[in-house]
């Protein structure tokens, strides 16, 4: 069976309030006046030293974010159930194969046709196990992608809400040093983001229970 991987969300950078759309604009041949104005405002702010920037250590957020931990736990549980289901089929195939060899060597089959039918039955079991392996792997990847997308959108939306209070022009995030080699500790808002995310998730769970 293909190896199941734990839930991983790859977040390299979040551009929030006041960020320009130059990354998206690079895919087109023209730049809108709004984008040019935003870029100019950003450059002006940078030169004036007034651009407010913060960063988030996403590894730390995920390690302490209750929604992520619960999602990861559920996905891993389904992965284990799938592995157990497949292993049961593999064990049954091995047992049937051993029984077939013993019966064949001892002349236990009434004729060649009976032996051939048993051989084909075992081959069908093997094919079913391979089909299950592929189905479980595809299902796991599909669920993993869906959960990653949900988690990304949730974090992005919550941080945007937080930033209405904080007023940063740019909030960056990194995963295992990707995209951010250094950041002044005074610009690190990881703890605040994690606390607010957990608070929002707890409130959402409470609301769900009331429904």
TrEMBL record:
Region (Disordered), start-end ranges: 21-40
Alphabetical keyword list: Coiled coil, Signal
Sections of the chain in a coiled coil: 58-135
InterPro entries: Chaperone_Skp (IPR005632), Skp_dom_sf (IPR024930)
Pfam families recorded: OmpH (PF03938)
Family classification: Belongs to the Skp family.
Stated name of the protein: Periplasmic chaperone for outer membrane proteins Skp
Species, as recorded: Porphyromonas miyakawae
Taxon lineage: Bacteria, Pseudomonadati, Bacteroidota, Bacteroidia, Bacteroidales
């Amino acid at each position: 069976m293909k190896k199941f991987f734990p839930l991983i969300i790859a977040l390299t950078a979040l551009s929030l309030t006041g960020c320009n759309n130059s990354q998206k604009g690079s895919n087109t041949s023209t730049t809108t006046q709004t984008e040019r104005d935003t870029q100019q405002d950003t450059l002006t702010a940078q030169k004036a030293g007034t651009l407010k920037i913060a960063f988030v250590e996403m590894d730390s957020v995920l390690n302490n974010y209750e929604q992520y931990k619960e999602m990861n736990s559920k996905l891993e549980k389904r992965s284990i159930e799938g592995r157990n289901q497949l292993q049961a089929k593999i064990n049954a195939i091995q047992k049937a194969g051993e029984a077939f060899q013993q019966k064949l060597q001892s002349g236990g089959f009434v004729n060649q046709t009976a032996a051939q039918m048993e051989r084909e039955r075992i081959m069908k079991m093997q094919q079913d196990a391979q089909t299950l392996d592929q189905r479980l792997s595809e299902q796991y990847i599909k669920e993993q992608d869906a959960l990653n997308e949900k988690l990304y959108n949730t974090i992005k939306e919550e941080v945007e809400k937080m930033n209405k209070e904080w007023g940063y022009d740019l909030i960056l995030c990194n995963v295992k040093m990707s995209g951010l080699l250094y950041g002044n500790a005074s610009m690190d808002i990881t703890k605040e983001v994690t606390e607010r995310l957990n608070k929002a998730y707890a409130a959402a769970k409470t609301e769900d229970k009331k429904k």
